[in-house]
């Protein structure tokens, strides 16, 4: 199948291009800068001549239409994350972009149309485990609100019978991230300055497993589907312990109550507007850190025949890459830098 994909210059999107090729699909990618996308994909071993590049932007309906023309399916992976720092206009990118791509694909009869959401649309959660059947939350963060607004639009299409699949990933982690962000950025901050130890935790899903799930989801005739893929859930002490074990270097633990972490995030947001500095704590990040609970990934894993790789493998590969890319001091990675 010819599959139109957004976000091919980004973390999830770039790995998904390779995963689509592995299962025999033909990717067509909508990218603002084909030269940049070519370099990102080349780093993953994807040759430029295996991909059909369409220059454009998800906010430009004309270029979206051009990319969708002649395709059989679509995957919308482009999004403004903005959890650990500024990411432009979150509402414009995450809502208008989704309307253009997902709505445009549905209007053309593509099947399936896959939308990558986030587990944050269920947070703060209403119970001890997040499932795709849970009601949408009313998040206080800009990122959460933008994703919920996009989610409501996509669910409306599902309610009208559109063959849209929604996948809700947790904290995406792994090597070869084109722009350091989210969980990988958090790993750098945790190993450099120390790990806060509030309640909550993080779901760690390997970018390669998520890409595989997206590629395997490209099956026509399945109708509307919603799947959570939060990954391996680790409390913050468990994540710190994993890093200690893998690196052989004991990182600092910061015993910070949840309310203090939220206040710190708000304060840092204000300070960063005056003086930019590198520390991945924001109010949005703090909200997610203290609210996360395990997710029920079994429906997706069973339906797609997918087995998640061990979290130790994901973290090891991510930390090795962070050192090789110059994001992390080799001394902080200990054994993994040798």
Walk me through what this model shows:
The protein has a seven-stranded parallel beta sheet with strand order 3-2-1-4-5-6-10, sandwiched between helices. Strands 7-9-11 form a three-stranded mixed beta sheet. A two-stranded parallel ribbon has the order 8-12. The protein has a domain at 2-175 and 204-231 and 293-308: Rossmann fold (3-Layer(aba) Sandwich), CATH 3.40.50.720. The radius of gyration is 19 Å and the shape is globular. Helix 1 packs across helix 7, helix 4 (90-107) runs parallel beside helix 5 (142-159) and helix 9 packs antiparallel against helix 10. It contains 13 helices and twelve strands. The chain is α/β, with parallel strands linked by helices.
Number of helices: 13
Low-confidence stretches: 83-88
Largest sheet: 7 strands, parallel
Mean pLDDT across the residues is: 91
Please give the CATH architecture of the domain at 2-175 and 204-231 and 293-308. 3-Layer(aba) Sandwich
Distance between the termini: 43 Å
Mind telling me the CATH superfamily name of the domain at 2-175 and 204-231 and 293-308? NAD(P)-binding Rossmann-like Domain
Query: What is the helix/strand order?
Result: EHEHEHEHEHEEHEEHEEHEHHHHH
What is the topology, as strand order, of the major beta sheet? Answer: 3-2-1-4-5-6-10
- Identify the CATH class of the domain at 2-175 and 204-231 and 293-308: Alpha Beta
Query: How many extended strands?
Result: 12
């Amino acid at each position: 199948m010819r599959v139109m994909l957004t976000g091919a210059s980004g973390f999830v999107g770039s790995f998904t291009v390779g995963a689509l090729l592995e299962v025999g699909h033909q990717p067509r990618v909508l990218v603002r800068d084909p030269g940049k996308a070519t370099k990102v994909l080349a780093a993953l071993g994807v040759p430029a001549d295996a991909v059909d590049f369409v220059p454009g932007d998800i906010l430009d309906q004309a270029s979206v239409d051009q990319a969708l023309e002649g395709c059989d399916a679509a995957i919308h992976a482009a999004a403004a994350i903005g959890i650990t720092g500024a990411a432009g206009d979150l509402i414009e990118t995450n809502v208008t972009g989704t309307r253009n791509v997902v709505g445009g694909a549905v209007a053309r009869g593509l099947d399936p149309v896959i939308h990558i959401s986030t587990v944050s649309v269920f947070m703060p959660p209403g119970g001890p485990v997040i499932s795709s059947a849970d009601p949408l939350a009313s998040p206080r963060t800009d990122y959460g609100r933008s994703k919920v607004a996009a989610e409501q639009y996509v669910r409306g299409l599902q309610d009208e019978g559109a063959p849209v699949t929604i996948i809700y990933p947790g904290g995406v982690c792994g090597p070869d991230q084109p722009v350091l962000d989210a969980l990988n950025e958090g790993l750098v901050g945790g190993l450099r300055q120390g790990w806060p130890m509030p309640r909550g935790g993080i779901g760690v899903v390997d970018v390669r497993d998520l890409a595989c799930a997206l590629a395997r989801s490209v099956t026509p005739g399945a109708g509307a589907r919603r799947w959570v893929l939060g990954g391996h859930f680790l409390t913050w002490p468990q994540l710190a312990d994993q890093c200690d074990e893998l690196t052989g270097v004991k990182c600092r633990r910061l015993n910070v109550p949840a309310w203090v972490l939220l206040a710190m995030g708000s304060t840092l947001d204000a300070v960063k507007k005056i003086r930019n500095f590198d520390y991945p704590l924001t109010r949005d990040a703090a909200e997610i850190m203290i609210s996360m609970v395990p997710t029920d990934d079994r429906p997706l894993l069973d339906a797609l025949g997918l087995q998640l790789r061990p979290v130790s493998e994901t973290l090891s590969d991510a930390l090795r890459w962070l050192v090789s890319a110059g994001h992390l001091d080799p001394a902080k990675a200990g054994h993994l830098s040798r």
